[in-house]
Amino acid sequence: MAASTDLEQLMSSFKKFAIHGDTKATGKEMNGKNWAKLCKDCKIIDGKNVTGTDVDIVFTKVKAKTSRVITYEEFQRALEELAPKRFKGQSKEEALTSVYKLIEGKEPTNVGVTKMAKTAAVDRLTDTTKYTGSHKERFDESGKGRGKGGREELVEKTGYVGSYKNAGTYEEKTKAK
């Protein structure tokens, strides 16, 4: 019973890595990039016994000649190839079990993918209170952008010349006479 749940977890990890980064992926096949990511994230690649090159060679060996992906069965054969290499002191079965344990329940990590730069230079450049000239007009006092009004000179159809100080006072002047 325990072995079947372990294989279910292995299948689940295979699916998660198979669809990682590919919107069209179904989870039934895994490409070489995701195979390498699985090996790296699950620490099958240790840098001494198993390297990135070994992982690529095993992928090429187990996949069909014209195919660019591996199925779950080919994935298991690839693990059988890598297990004795990763765990040298163990028997083939023990090594395979150890490799399964490394993979079970894991999913792709996104650590260190994109880091936001937060330096004093970036803060200075994005501080809207220090903007001058025409750029200053694009933001209000709180630093919020004005949208289209801040980028383009919008025409007001009032009949007055732009920036005329006494706009809207004509009616009052004519009543006074």
TrEMBL record:
GO terms for cellular component: microtubule. Residues 134-156 have a biased composition (Basic and acidic residues). GO terms for biological process: microtubule bundle formation; microtubule polymerization; positive regulation of protein polymerization. It is found in: Cytoplasm, Cytoskeleton. InterPro entries: EF-hand-dom_pair, TPP/p25. Its main location: cytoplasm. The keyword Cytoplasm applies. The keyword Cytoplasm applies. Keywords: Cytoplasm, Cytoskeleton, Microtubule. Residues 132-158 are annotated as: Disordered. GO terms for molecular function: tubulin binding. This is Tubulin polymerization-promoting protein family member 3. It comes from Salmo trutta. The gene is TPPP3.
